């Protein structure tokens, strides 16, 4: 192709002038770059299937002039690597988890505070608009990232091959795989576990070879990664929520003409709505499905876990790190935390 992905940002001004929806011949002359979207999500995850359908629709409606290619399952590297590629302009779009974004823009992790949200109503209100969403988007903007909306990756549970997690004591010393998230690392350390960061695509092998004793993730993600094949116990701790921001390199995004941005934004919005509905159904069906695959499932009382975090100073620490104003914005949706 005449214009490489790396060259796109450097030549975005020139490309933007040629980008309005035009005859297919313009693309053949190299006027329009093919853009890449990286994602850590497995092929079967609804974030992958719904976004792939949206990109197909964008391609069709623009008669091939807007061609965004999705690379799921960490094909373009780990989440930190994809964040770096996105900021440099090597890729134009990415799907990046709230938990891993915290390492780049700390405030991005605030929706994942342990036991903050117990249902989706206040969660989507917080993230689809309002003060908290605005603060997160502004924080991402400082790193040259344009944020669309968040796709769902669910409330997270613990799956292990060692023992069920019925109490805080059951976590003591367990090596639990977590994403590169300071918030989740802090949570499991406060509960006495030994969290370890492993790339999602490498987690199955790590659990199979006992490099890790278990992992924590949502039911659809546990199903999609097939880790139930090498683990035995699923404990419905619901300790944290995680989702994925759809992001663009802000310079590349602003270089696109208004009609192209409107078309892309409309289809991505529709994909988010579809993904959330699909994920909710998968989550509702997940426990029965995983039980049928042989997992032993329990639902512990969550209050002792929350109380242990209060005693460990977890909430006080993160209120200090996020700042009083951001914490107040969070509590306007969740109610008081850490009391």
TrEMBL record:
Key words of the record: Signal, Transport
Subcellular location: Cell envelope
Lineage top rank: taxon: Bacteria
Pfam families the record matches: DctP (PF03480)
CDD domains found in the cross-reference section: PBP2_TRAP_Siap_TeaA_like
UniProt entry tagged with the keyword Glycosyltransferase: no
Transmembrane regions listed in the UniProt entry: none
InterPro entries for this protein: DctP_fam, TAT_signal, TRAP_DctP, TRAP_DctP_sf
UniProt-listed NCBIfam families: dctP, TRAP_S1
Record family assignment: Belongs to the bacterial solute-binding protein 7 family.
Protein name: Sialic acid-binding periplasmic protein SiaP
Species, as recorded: Methylobacterium crusticola
Taxonomic path: Bacteria, Pseudomonadati, Pseudomonadota, Alphaproteobacteria, Hyphomicrobiales
């Amino acid at each position: 192709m005449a214009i490489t992905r790396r060259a796109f940002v450097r030549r975005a001004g020139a490309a933007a002038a040629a980008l309005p929806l035009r005859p297919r011949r313009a693309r053949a002359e190299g006027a329009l770059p093919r853009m890449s979207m990286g994602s850590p999500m497995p092929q079967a995850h609804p974030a992958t299937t719904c976004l792939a359908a949206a990109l197909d629709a964008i391609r069709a409606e623009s008669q091939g002039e807007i061609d965004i290619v999705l690379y799921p399952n960490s094909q373009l590297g780990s989440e930190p690597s994809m964040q770096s590629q996105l900021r440099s302009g090597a890729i134009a779009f990415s799907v990046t988890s709230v938990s891993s974004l915290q390492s780049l823009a700390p405030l991005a992790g605030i929706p994942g505070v342990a036991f903050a949200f117990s249902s989706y109503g206040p969660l989507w209100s917080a993230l689809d608009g309002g003060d908290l969403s605005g603060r997160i988007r502004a924080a991402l903007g400082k790193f040259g990232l344009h944020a669309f909306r968040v796709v769902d990756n669910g409330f997270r549970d613990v799956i292990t091959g060692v023992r069920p997690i019925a109490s805080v004591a059951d976590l003591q010393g367990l090596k639990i795989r977590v994403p590169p998230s300071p918030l989740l690392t802090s949570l499991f350390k406060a509960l006495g576990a030994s969290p370890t960061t492993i790339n999602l695509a490498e987690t199955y092998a790590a659990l199979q070879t006992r490099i890790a004793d278990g992992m924590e993730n949502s039911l659809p993600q546990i199903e999609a990664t097939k880790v139930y094949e090498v683990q035995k116990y699923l404990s419905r701790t619901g300790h944290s929520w995680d989702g994925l921001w759809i992001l663009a390199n802000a310079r590349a995004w602003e270089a696109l003409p208004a009609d192209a941005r409107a078309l892309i934004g409309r289809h991505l919005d529709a994909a988010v709505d579809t993904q959330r509905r699909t994920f909710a159904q998968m989550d509702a069906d997940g426990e029965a499905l995983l039980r049928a695959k042989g997992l032993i499932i329990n639902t512990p009382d969550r209050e002792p876990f929350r109380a242990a975090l209060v005693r460990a100073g977890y909430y006080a620490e993160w209120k200090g790190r996020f700042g009083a104003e951001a914490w107040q914005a969070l509590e306007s949706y969740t109610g008081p935390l850490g009391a």
